């Protein structure tokens, strides 16, 4: 058992932690893990962050039951690179998923495979996005599922929130969803949790929702009604180029997901496994959403790289704790493997931060590495590398520094400190930290064309041509036509 010994001296309170074998659970008490991941959610898009006016009562309460990491970072803020980093514990220079729609390598031991080795049953529900550029492809059982062999209710990539589909286990025929996709996925998750709760083996379940990634308006109307466009209070760094409908829809998705998350937590409670289940709520990357006059992701600003991260494990992870030590996606695999008593593969480049997660502030790391090796024309401007500390964000292009912000004094990143005389020492320090990471990772910081020639063959202007196989594309088109006809019949004024 972990004992909290509180010592009082000179008016300050310090906490020391005694761990009697806590870092290596026995076979009989290994914790379950429920890993809930949104897509394109920035860290401030929840009420408990205290920044944006978005209604997330479940997340706010959940944060009071666990630890919220305010400096959680997406090392490579785009869908596929971030997910590849999560499941391998490796940076882009090693897992080679340098942009979207690249199939993840199968020759290194993954997160789920490492848990399989110690008896875990691993299930996956929702968006995968780690296969090839056929976004409607059926990912067959085997290595391409990266160890999620117990249950599979997933698809490669689609963002069809009212016309969604998924593939189940070894059935290559898609199952089509009626209604809002995350709600259907949540029902599947609760069913899986209840099934596994009665078994002896621990389980690892990933629930990967598509929202709040665009399309921002594909969300039930009752949630959109909560956020009238004219009443939205925009962040200070949002310029004149803004689509309020997008921000309204983004918030609406978040409130809908908050209700789905409540159902998952209730399912864990009803199954009687709350005390021995680690619940993680996070995302793959953020969304600029018109901050800095930018959209989408793949940029080094805080809205793109800073993701939500809340972890709950009753009696083990402190409740109500808010901490700002840097922690990143590449660290999630080794950290959670350590908490479960699994071996960390030698290929993992992330850091085991289990001691920090359990409350030891001295175990926090000083910096995390961020990067964008490919330049997708629609997302970013340059290939870049950078570092994040507790207090600063720094990124550089290949030939000159790009951004430097003091995030404590300037949380909206309104004043770029690059090349200002007053920040000369700080900039030099951050540049040294970045160069240290490049050397450590053996990252040559090549230009986009060089990287594409190695790992992104067939791409053009930083984007891979994408498609859906005929079975999926035809059915999707017919379903959309039918839904439009039903809407037009119910609302004749909607016809054009």
UniProtKB/TrEMBL annotation:
<comment type="similarity">
    <text>Belongs to the sulfatase family.</text>
</comment>
<feature type="domain" description="Sulfatase N-terminal">
    <location>
        <begin position="31"/>
        <end position="341"/>
    </location>
</feature>
<dbReference type="Pfam" id="PF00884">
    <property type="entry name" value="Sulfatase"/>
</dbReference>
<dbReference type="InterPro" id="IPR050738">
    <property type="entry name" value="Sulfatase"/>
</dbReference>
<keyword id="KW-0378">Hydrolase</keyword>
<dbReference type="InterPro" id="IPR000917">
    <property type="entry name" value="Sulfatase_N"/>
</dbReference>
<dbReference type="GO" id="GO:0004065">
    <property type="term" value="F:arylsulfatase activity"/>
</dbReference>
<dbReference type="InterPro" id="IPR017850">
    <property type="entry name" value="Alkaline_phosphatase_core_sf"/>
</dbReference>
<protein>
    <submittedName>
        <fullName>Sulfatase</fullName>
    </submittedName>
</protein>
């Amino acid at each position: 058992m972990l004992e909290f010994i509180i010592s009082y001296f000179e008016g300050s309170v310090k906490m020391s932690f005694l761990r009697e074998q806590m870092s290596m659970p026995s076979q009989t008490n290994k914790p379950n893990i429920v890993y809930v991941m949104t897509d394109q959610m920035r860290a401030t898009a929840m009420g408990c962050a205290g920044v944006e006016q978005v209604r997330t009562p479940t997340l706010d309460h959940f944060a009071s039951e666990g630890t919220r990491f305010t400096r959680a970072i997406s090392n490579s803020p785009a869908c596929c690179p971030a997910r590849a980093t999560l499941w391998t514990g490796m940076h882009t220079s090693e897992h080679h998923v340098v942009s979207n729609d690249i199939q993840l390598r199968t020759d290194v031991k993954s997160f789920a495979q490492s848990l399989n080795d110690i008896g875990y049953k691993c299930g996956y529900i929702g968006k995968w996005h780690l296969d090839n550029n056929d976004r409607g492809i059926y990912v067959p059982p085997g290595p391409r599922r990266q160890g999620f062999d117990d249950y599979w209710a997933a698809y490669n990539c689609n963002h069809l929130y009212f016309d969604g589909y998924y593939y189940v286990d070894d059935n290559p025929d898609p199952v089509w969803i009626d209604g809002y996709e995350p709600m259907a996925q949540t029902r599947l998750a609760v069913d899986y949790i209840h099934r596994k709760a009665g078994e002896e083996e621990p389980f690892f379940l990933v629930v990967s929702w598509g929202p709040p990634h665009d399309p921002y308006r594909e969300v039930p109307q009752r949630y959109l009604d909560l956020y009238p466009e004219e009443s939205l209070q925009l962040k200070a760094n949002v310029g004149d180029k803004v689509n309020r409908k997008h921000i309204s829809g983004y918030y609406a998705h978040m409130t809908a997901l908050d209700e789905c998350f409540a159902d998952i937590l209730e399912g864990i409670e009803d199954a009687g496994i709350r005390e021995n289940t680690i619940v993680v709520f996070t995302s793959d990357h953020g969304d600029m959403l018109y901050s800095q006059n930018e959209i989408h992701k793949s940029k080094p600003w805080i809205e793109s790289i800073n993701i939500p991260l809340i972890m709950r494990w009753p009696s083990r992870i402190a409740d109500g704790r808010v901490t700002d030590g840097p922690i990143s996606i590449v660290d999630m695999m080794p950290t959670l493997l350590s908490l479960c008593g699994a071996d960390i593969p030698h290929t993992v480049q992330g850091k085991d931060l289990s001691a920090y997660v359990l409350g030891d502030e001295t175990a926090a790391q000083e910096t995390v590495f961020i990067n964008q090796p490919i330049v997708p024309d629609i997302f970013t401007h340059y290939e870049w590398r950078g570092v994040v500390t507790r207090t600063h964000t720094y990124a550089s292009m290949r030939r000159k520094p790009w951004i430097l912000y003091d995030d404590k004094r300037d949380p909206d990143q309104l004043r770029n400190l690059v090349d200002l005389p007053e920040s000369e020492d700080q900039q030099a320090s951050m540049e040294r930290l970045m160069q240290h990471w490049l050397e450590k990772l053996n990252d040559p910081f090549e230009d986009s064309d060089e990287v594409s020639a190695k790992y992104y063959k067939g791409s053009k202007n930083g984007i891979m041509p994408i498609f859906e196989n005929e079975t999926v594309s035809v059915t999707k088109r017919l379903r959309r036509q039918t839904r439009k006809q039903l809407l037009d019949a119910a609302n004749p004024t909607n016809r054009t």
